[in-house]
Amino acid sequence: MKNKxxxxxxxxITIATITPVTHAKKIYPAEIMGRDLDYFGLGxxxxxxxxxxxxxxxxxxxxxxxxxxEILKEDPVGQINSISNFKSRSKYWGSKYGIAxxxxxxxxxxxxxxxxxxxxxxxxxxxxxxxxxxxxxxxQITECxxxxxxxxxxxxxxxxxxxxxxxxxxxxxxxxxxxxxxxDERFAIGLSEQSLNIxxxxxxxNVTAEELNVMPYEEFQMIMDAPPVHYVTSPSTxxxxxxxxxxxxxxxxxxxxxxxxxxxxxxxxxxxxxxxYHETNNIELKNKIVQxxxxxxxxxxxxxxxIHNEQPWLKAFFAELLNSKSLNSKxxxxxxxxxxxxxxxxxxxxxxxxxxxxxxxxGHYSSIMLKYTLVHKSKELQxxxxxxxxxxxxxxxxxxxxxxxxxxxxxxxxxxxxxxxEPESKQVVVDYLKAVHQKYTPQGIEKNSNDSHRITTxxxxxxxxxxxxx
Length: 470
What we know:
Blueprint: E1 9-16, E2 32-35, E3 38-39, E4 43-44, E5 47-52, E6 67-71, E7 78-82, H1 83-88, E8 92-97, H2 104-118, E9 122-123, E10 133-134, E11 141-143, E12 146-147, H3 149-158, H4 172-178, E13 181-182, E14 193-200, H5 209-214, H6 217-224, H7 235-244, H8 250-263, H9 269-279, H10 283-300, H11 304-309, H12 311-322, H13 329-342, H14 345-350, H15 352-358, H16 364-375, H17 379-396, H18 399-416, H19 423-435, H20 442-447, H21 453-468
Parallel strand pairs: 9-12
Antiparallel strand pairs: 1-14, 2-5, 2-8, 3-4, 5-6, 6-7, 8-13, 10-11
């Protein structure tokens, strides 16, 4: 029997209890906030978010923060919520500062965090992230982002040259602790400290599914991040074996698939995931495979070998799913996007009845993002789906949802100029902007202070008017 090279790692983690005080302290934008959160199948990792508020320029960074921008395993994945909501959902850790300034850099952290909400973000329990992106000339989504709460916060800061995640172990608590100063709404005093030392002398090759199921997350992640030099078999091959292993819990099987897509090191990856999809009866796993194959297509759409050899399989796969008799709400978004991304405009038009059948099941946020992608597939689809977007926005009457049109469309007009939309489509948008104008004026915001999203959407409303030249 061959001797395997095992990775031996150790990490010291200090868990401290902090005591709240009764008075409140100002929290400024671009500061970090944390609270407890249990992750099913992984344990207690915690949750972090970035403090924010209404502003139209870096001059607003001196205001009190009253909201957070965060990633949640909910619909939508990227959210802006009130600080009071954040504090009420679980045990609150406090807020910290000392990384970003209260000027241009801090402002750009918030701008990037908000832009990532518009690029169809997908949730992952893994630490491997993918940055969402769009076409600068249209605001159309090209690649969906893939985030966990801490990787999302980390990227917002890192995009401005600020690295907030020290060491090898990526955890919300570690990111929170990296910020040097507590606001005095909490004392940064450890009343009870417990040192947790983990020594890992394992690799994925020498553990069982049952051992992974009960393994603390810190140890699990260290094994997942073990350098390939420590493996006899390729890490991706072992990850694929665990993805197929029904004894491994669903969350960790999904992490295996997320890691396979992120690293893209396994030969015949598309075929193997398609086989797993057809072999398993596990609905959650099927949903994860559909999402992962959609993301894989986005990230390889310019790779010639993929286009010729593998994309035809995915084109047929998404067409088959779109024509199925039932799609659950969790997967409909990924099926529609996979179909749109792998098919030309004429085939989309031919299947529009099926797309329109499933769009309402995705929820308003996904629906608007999908329709905005359809707008830029052809002039015929532009006319159809600009009107459909506006009809849905009128019906939803949701100020936050409005930003999912105002933001990307403003980016498109800024990049392309006044001819981005055909005159008829542009007029449909103009009519809507006029209809909701009062909502986003200072008077309209003050009149309905319960609608916290009016104040965060207003800058994008007026930016769109400016960029459209109306």
